[in-house]
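User: Hello! I'm new to structural biology and keep hearing that structure can be predicted from sequence alone. Could you demonstrate with Cytosine deaminase? Please show me the input and the output so I can see what each looks like.

Assistant: Of course. The first part below is the input, the amino acid sequence of Cytosine deaminase. The second part is the output, the predicted structure written as tokens.
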Amino acid sequence: MRILNARLRETDGLHDVEVSNGRFTSITPAASIPGDAATAPASNDLDGSLRISVDVFDARGRMLVPQFVDAHLHLDYANTVGKPRLNESGTLFEAIDIWADHKAMGFVNKDLIKQNATNAIRAEVSNGVGFIRTHVDVTDPNLTALEAILEVKDEVREWCEVQIISFPQNGIFAYPNGNSLMEESLRRGADVVGGIPHFERSLTSGLRSVDWIFELAEKYDKLIDVHCDEIDDESSRFLEYMADLAVERSMQGRVTASHVVAMAYYKSGYMAKLLSKLREADVRFAINPTENLHLQGWGTDAPIPRGMAPIRTLIEGGLNVALGQDSIADPWYPIGEGDMLRILDFGLHVGHMLNEQYLGNCLDLITVNGAKNMGISDRYGIAVGNPASAIILDAPTDKEALWHQSDVLLSLHNGSVVFEREPQRTTWGSAVQS
Ligand SMILES: [Zn+2]
């Protein structure tokens, strides 16, 4: 397969890209440049399919970028909204209660979870996602959701890569046998160790849960990704302890902190001290802008805090930040479809990041940074030898892709076509002046 006249993010000019046996085999300056595509931005007036013959696509100056990464999702919760009831308060803790009832009332069914999760993956993939890091609730004596998502992971592997985090939604020590269920989930095939220290019954219990998380990760040689400090409470500081343990146990670069909304409340003096510790530990971040804008800041007087981790401060502090959808129609969040450009739009707005510097490389937050969290950077991206997992976006630059919420016109996963989509075309009425 060949893709002609593609714009790559880190190189000037247009390129022809060859794919064979699922991998990129050559990337060279474009041989034939149609019209003024080399200089003009891609635009919607270039209509028609990109496919110009059986296995040749002409990007005509549009961007070829790696498939998007959703760095934080809950596939086993997807499409369960309203079962058994809607979240009336909108808060995180009502959602956790609803989920406990959902489990106790027998709603957990392997076939249904598989069907709902597969539909969620299809929604994400239709928006250009090719890599999903999903948390899966293991506070269930039967580990039904884990079994379901392990099967789904295998069933979709031709068109989407799923990484599974063992996630103790109701706590490691707050839930009966939570610690042994975590360990059992790793034996059965979970890829990453999760946690939820701010939900354990006390500060001490939360700290003890972080110790246990690191012990498991060491024992099974796994990465860590913890729901950390997801609470509107400036005294929630498990992140600092995680950074401390990462250095103490030589696990720098192997730990991701998800959500960390309490950071929105940290004062600058503490933040300055914390940032240097986080850098030393090379802690990575998975931030979920739409989800936490919805879940945080309830029940307070004006001005209402929005409870979003400070994305810009983290990036300027030299830390890796990736974005996630978090939820697709579940007790925590009533909508969501894995549209990472939309998540990015929210993230940049709430992060005060609409300047040229950030707009210029904003796709990092939903591509390479997510790959870094997942530990797949060595095989992710458009480079000779890497698996050909990439999309053509109907835009010439990061900024335009975000600005126009551009369509994905072609998606490849390991060299196979996942879908093709024709550019949108508008036929103006005669009353509209040209
Ligand atoms: Zn989450």
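User: So the tokens describe the shape?

Assistant: Right, they're a compact way of writing down the 3D structure. Reading them back into a model, for example: The chain has a mean pLDDT of 95.
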